[in-house]
Design a protein that fits this description.
Length: 386
């Protein structure tokens, strides 16, 4: 039985609470912590966590529960993830940290180092991997059924109203760490990195088109180029649109392979060439489409999805029955790609990967110094009141 605490009991914490509560025979929530302890008390009541202690500071919690706490979920704003994760790991507590893992690669490295030094688990939230269409899209690609990828299209389309960036920690490079590329497209960028690994080069443009109350971007478009690999053809390209200005939030991730096109939401098409090289209307393509549909339809559905699915995996890795799917290295890879997009957009250059530790964009201070400030954040509200 693992003992669990949540640090930061705002919006996202409810998904973590639901996740842990789904496994009562494997874990128990023993503490809630928030600098606004009333939020802990409200969650404690809502979820019927009678035995859970409430703390207003994570250090007080770690001291008081020394030796009694196995795992914390870190659900605070991005700028505090690294410091609090390192404190927890140094106190001998395993960590599941919300996305984005941190606001810079330097912070990611400090977190990974603390996990290694203390022999503890560092897991990063990427709950959308734990959805059947995404998990099974990855399995279909891994099976090599569409050949190497030639092009990937990532439509990370979200929509947020103007006041979204009025929340105290949102809308600044210092506290949020970036805009929609870091905090929304992070999900899709994680999936892309999981499937294809890191590209060799990135170019990008950043813009703020509809949120004149935020320093950060509300729209970015990036183009990535891949080296030849068993998964990608030489020079394969990916395009990522990261947005909080897309009405309808139609999101998709499409892979064009050598022999077919597949996507989430699931759709498959394929072409073969007629003698003049134009698409043929023949049975070969139709049977390849049928083969892909049959393979995909036979894949298992996940028992637990999203945060609950990831929490199941984290608990299983602590119990020694499964491998951790999203570890510190995976979280870092996502931050590396996002940092490259920011560097490319801010500097109007094509950025080669990997980024070195001497790169000005390696640290949070370097990003804050170099990133474009589209507007000034003038409004700061503590809470939207639910
Ligand atoms: N996985 C997802 O889909 C998803 C969705 C939304 C938010 N998030 C992430 O979750 C994190 C929190 O976002 P949110 O929407 O819940 O924000 P929120 O503002 O609703 O909640 C954050 C909470 O952290 C508390 N807090 C701040 N500093 C603290 C500290 N030093 N110690 C203890 N508590 C502290 C705040 O009082 C607040 O209650 C962010 O990293 C965000 O990007 C993830």
């Amino acid at each position: 039985m693992r003992t669990v605490a949540i640090i930061g009991t705002g919006n996202i914490s409810g998904f973590h609470l639901d996740g842990y509560i789904a496994f009562p025979e494997r874990c128990k929530i023993i503490a809630l912590c928030d600098i606004v302890p009333e939020k802990c008390k409200a969650k404690k009541q809502k979820y019927g966590l009678d035995g859970a202690a409430v703390y207003a500071s994570h250090t007080e919690m770690l001291n008081s529960l020394a030796g009694k706490l196995d795992l914390v979920s870190i659900c605070m704003p991005p700028f505090c993830h690294a410091e609090i994760a390192v404190d927890c790991l140094n106190a001998g507590v395993n960590v599941l940290v919300e996305k984005p893992m941190a606001t810079s690669l330097a912070e990611c490295d400090v977190m990974i180092d603390a996990a290694k030094r203390n022999g503890k688990t560092l897991a990063v939230v990427a709950q959308n991997r734990f959805r059947t269409p995404i998990m099974n899209l990855k399995k279909t690609l891994d099976a090599g059924l569409i050949g190497r990828v030639l092009h990937a299209q990532i439509d990370s389309h979200w929509w947020r109203g103007h006041s979204y960036y009025d929340l105290w920690w949102r809308g600044t490079w210092e506290k949020e760490g970036g805009g929609c590329t870091l905090n929304h497209a992070v999900h899709h960028i994680d999936m892309l990195g999981w499937v294809l690994g890191l590209p060799e080069a990135v170019c990008a443009m950043l813009a703020n088109t509809a949120h004149d109350n935020a320093e950060v971007e509300d729209l970015s478009v990036a183009v990535l180029r891949y080296a030849a690999s068993p998964l990608t053809a030489k020079g394969a390209l990916a395009q990522i649109t990261s947005s909080v200005v897309h009405h309808g939030e139609e999101q998709q991730i499409i892979f064009q392979g050598e022999t077919a096109r597949i996507s989430a939401p699931w759709k498959v098409t394929a072409n073969t060439a007629s003698p003049d090289a134009f698409p043929a209307d023949d049975s070969v393509a139709a049977s390849h489409i049928a083969e892909l549909n049959t393979f995909y339809d036979a894949l298992p559905r996940l028992n637990y999805t999203a945060h609950t699915g990831e929490i199941d995996n984290v608990l299983a890795s602590l119990e020694g029955t499964d491998t951790l799917l999203v570890d510190g290295a995976a979280g870092r890879r996502t931050i590396e790609l996002i940092t490259a997009i920011y560097k490319a957009g801010a500097s109007a250059v094509t950025v080669a990967l990997p980024l070195s530790k001497s790169d000005p964009f390696y640290t949070a201070a370097g990003i804050v110094a170099a990133a474009p400030r589209f507007y000034q954040k003038t409004t700061s509200v503590k809470d939207f009141g639910g």
